[in-house]
Amino acid sequence: MTKKGDVISRLLQEKGVDEEILEESFPFKTKEWVELRHKHKRGGVGAKHTKNLKQINANDPNSEQIGSYNSIDGGISVKKPIKYCDFTGFHTQYQDPKTGLRYFNADFFPVVRQIPDSVRDDYLAIRKANIVLR
Amino acid sequence: MKKIFEIKPIEYKHSPSVKDASDRFIPHLRPLKSKPLADRPCIIIDNGSYECRAGWSFEETPFLKFRNMVAKPKTQVNKAIDAMHLVGDELNEFDAGKLAKRSMFDKNIVYHYQSLEHMLDYTFGHLGLAGESQIDYPLLMTEAMCNPNHCRQNMSELLFECYRVSAVSYSVDSLLSFYYNQSKRNENFSVPNTSGLIVSSSHQVSHIIPILDGQVALESTRRLALGGSHHLELLNKSLNLKYAQHKNTLQNPDAIQYIMENHTYCATNYREQTLYLEGLFNEERAYQLEEERKKREALYGNANAEYGSKEEEKKSTISGRKIVTAVYKGRTQRQNELEGEDVVDREDHIIQLPWQQEPIPTDDEIRRRHEMRKEQGQKLKEIMQRKREEKKRKMEDELADLQSLEAYREQNQVSVFNEEIQNRGVKNFEEYKKKIRLLQIKLGIKSAEEKKPDEEKYNLLEIADEFLSPEELKRKRIQKMQKTAAMLREERKQVQKIERDKIEEFKQSDPDSYLRQLYAKRKEIMDRIAERQRRKEEFSKRGSKAAQRRLQMMAEIGLGAENEGIQKKRGRPPAAQDQGGMQQGEDDDFGAADEDWDVYRGIAKDGFSDEEEDDQQGLNELEEQIAEIDPKFANLIYNTSKQPTAEDYQIRLWSDRYRGSEILFQPSIVGMENAGLSEILENILSPVSQAIREKILRCVFITGGHTKVPGFDKRIKQELTMINRAGTPINIVKCFDEQLDAWKGGAWLANNFFSSKGLNEYSISKAKYEECGHHYLKEHFCSNFFYGPKQGGAGVMQLSKVVSLLQDKVQQSEGQLKRVKV
C-alpha cells in the first residue's frame, strides 16, 4: 500500500504543477490558450461568463426551431395527479388542513399533528408543496 | 423468518497513474503514429453526467471510467497542492471535507468549460498521450440529445484551440448504444433499414427517441428532466426523514447509493403493488394491535384494557420494526405458488444498518457495583450521624450556658444578667426566654408547663367565669382554644389511622381489586391531563369553539360598561329609562369589588397550571404505589435503560423500494407538473398510423444507466400495451450493458465507419473548423441535428431530411383535401 504523501507527490508530478507559478501544465495544451486562460483568470478583458442551462436557452436566438434544446421538452401533464401518503407512499384521501400533510389512516394522525414544523416542511418539500418565503 | 439485508460499503477505486497508462498504450500507438489520420485509432469519450468513460477504439472496454466530478483541494497549507485540480477517482485520495467538488453539468448539458478542461487534461494524460505536443488522433465525443449550439461552440473551441485535436466527431450516446446493439443483434444490419423506439433514462434526464428508417424522428423526440439522480434524492430524503435516529449511517451518500442499487425496482403495476403493500401493512397492524391487547390484558386484566402505553404502540408501528413472522411465511408461499419462482421480489425489505453491541455487564459486575454503592451509602450515613451529634452537643452546651445565667437573675443582679445576655447576642429578657424555649424544643426537652398533666394545664376551664379575674379570664380563653385544637388533632389522627388500616386490610385481603382501584384512579388523572392538553390545543387554534368563546368573553367584559348605552342606540326599549341619563356621565366602577377580577380567570390561557401540578404529583404518587405492588408495571414504566438491540438498527423499506423509479411515470410524486414517460409515449404515438407504430414498436430499445432498475423493461412494455391496439407486436430489447454500451457504440462507429474517406463524413477536421467556424457540425446518423442559421461553407443543412412519424397522416390528409376539391 502506498502512503498518502507518495500519492500526492505523484499527482503533483503528473499534473506538472509548477512550484513558482502554481499552475498545472500539460505538454499537449497550446501555450496561447493557457496564457489566455491565465489572463481571463486574473480578470482580463474578454473573459467568458459561464452561463447555466437556463441562461443558455434564454440567449439562444433559434430556440423556437426544431432541434433546439427546448423543442424536445416533454411538456406538461394533463392528467390529474394521484395523491399518496407522505409517510408511507400508500394511496390516501386524507389531508390534514393544518399542516397540509397527507396521511394514510388514523394511526398517522397523531404523528401528523405532533410533527415539528421543520420536519413538516421537509416532508412537503419532497413534493414541492412547502411555502418558501423569500 | 424474513430475510434481513445488510449494507456493504462501497469500495473506492484508485486512479491509474500516468506511467501505467503510458506503459500500456505507447507500444500500441508508436507504430500507428506514422499512418494517415484516418487509419489511426480513435479516442472515444463518453461524457456522461454521472460517469465519464474514455478509452481507445482498439480496446474492448474503456480504460478510464470515473465519476464525472472535478474538485479542488483546500488544504490551505501547501499551495502547490491547492493549485491542482482533481478528477474522478483522484478525489478518493483526499478527505471529502477538504474538497470543493463541482460538476460540469447542468441537467444533461456541459456548461462549465473550465471543469471540462481539467477533465480532458486528466483523460488525455491517462490515455498514454502525456508526452505528446498535441492530440494528433481523431476524437469521438458524446453529447446530449439536442445539445444547444452555444455548448457545442465552446466544446469545439476548447478541443481545437487548446488541444489541437485533428478531428472531432460528435454523437449522441443513446443513438450510439442503439445502433451498436442493432448491429450486434441483426446479421443483415444496415442503417437505413433500422427502425425503433429508444427509451433511455440516465442520471439527470430521460429521453424517448423514435427512429424511422435510420433517421431520428426529431418532431416526436421528447425529454423528461428526471433520472437516476432524482430517484436517489427522493430515497435519501424519505429515508432520512423517516429514520432521523439513524442519521449517522443514512446521511452517508454511499449507503443510500447502495440501497438504491440493490433494493429498488420498478413496479409493473404501481397501483396494484401499492394496494398489495397496503394490505400487508393493515394485516400486520391488526396483528400487532391484537398482540398489544393480549399483552395488556395479561398485565392489567380485562377491566382496564383501555389504557396501556399508547405512545409506545404507535412508535413501533410507524418505524415498522415489529415483524410478524407468521403473516410473512404465508404470504411468500402463496406468492411463489401463484407466480412461480421467477418473480420480482415484491415484499418490503428490511435492512440492517451497521451497529455495535455494548457489552452486557455480568452478574459479578452488577453485584460488585451494588456493593460499592452500598458501602458508599453506609459511609455517608455515618458522616451524617456524626454531624448530627456534633450539632446536638453544641446546642446542649449553649442551653446550659444560657440557663446558668438564670442564677444572676435569681440573685437579683439584673444589670449583670442583662450585660451577660447582651454579650451572647440576646437583647432582652423576652428574647432570652424565647431562645431557651427554642433550644429546648429542638433538643426535645419538654418545658415545665407542657409536662403538667391535663388537669393542671386546663385548670381554669372548670371554674366558672364569675370567680375569675380578667387576667385569668383571658388565660381561660386561651386554654379553651388549646384544648379544642388538641382534641381535633387527636380526632384527625384517629380517622387517618382507621383509613390507613382499612386500606392496609384491603391490600392484604384483596390485592387484585386494590390494584385495579389504583389503576382506575390513574386513568382518571391521565384522562384529566389529556383533556387539559386537548383544551390547551384548542385554544391555540383561532377558529376553534373554545377560542371563540374566550374572545366573546373578552368582548363582553370590554363592552360591559357601555352595554346599556349600546342597547339604547340600537333602539331597544331601555328597561330603566330614567337611569339612562344618570349613567351617562358616571364613572364605571369595575374593579372596586374583588369579585370583578374573577372574570379574567376565564380568559387566562393557562389558568389551570396549579391543577396540572397537583395532578402530576398525584400521578407520580399513584405510580409509585402501583409499582410497589405490581412488578410488571414497574418494568413497563421505568424500563428505559434497555440495551439497544439489532432490531433498533434496522430500517424497513416499504414503498420506498419502487417509489423512486415511479417518478419517471408520475412526476407529481416529486411535485413536478411534467408529463410522465407513459403520457409522453401516449402523446407521441397517438397521432401515428398503425403501420408506422408497428414498425417502431418491433424494437423498443431500452438504454441508459438508470434503466438498470429491475422491472423497467416490463413496465415500459405494460405502458405500451395499454396505449396500443390489442395484438400490436411489442418487442422490448434491453441493451447489453446499460453503462458501457454508449462507449462501445462509439468504438464500433470508429472502427467500422472512420476508415480512409469515412472520417471526413463523420467528423469535423481541424481545417474544416478553421474554415467554417466554431458552430460547424457534421451530421451523421448518430449525431444531433444542426439547427439555426445555415452553416457556412460546404456544410449542408440536413434538417429538411428529418423524417416525420406522421408522414402517412400528412399524405392521407392531402389526399382528402384533393378529393374535397374535386
From TrEMBL, chain A:
GO biological process terms, semicolon-separated: chromatin remodeling
Transcription regulation keyword on record: yes
Superkingdom of source: Eukaryota
Record has Transcription as a keyword: yes
Coiled-coil features, chain-numbered ranges: none
PANTHER family tied to this protein: INO80 COMPLEX SUBUNIT C
The name this protein goes by in its record: Vps72/YL1 C-terminal domain-containing protein
Automatic annotation (TrEMBL), chain B:
Keywords: Coiled coil, Nucleus, Transcription, Transcription regulation
Compartment annotation: Nucleus
SUPFAM superfamilies: Actin-like ATPase domain
Source organism superkingdom: Eukaryota
Gene Ontology CC: one annotated term: nucleus
Similarity-based family: Belongs to the actin family.
Family matches, as PANTHER family: ACTIN
Protein name (record): Actin-related protein 5
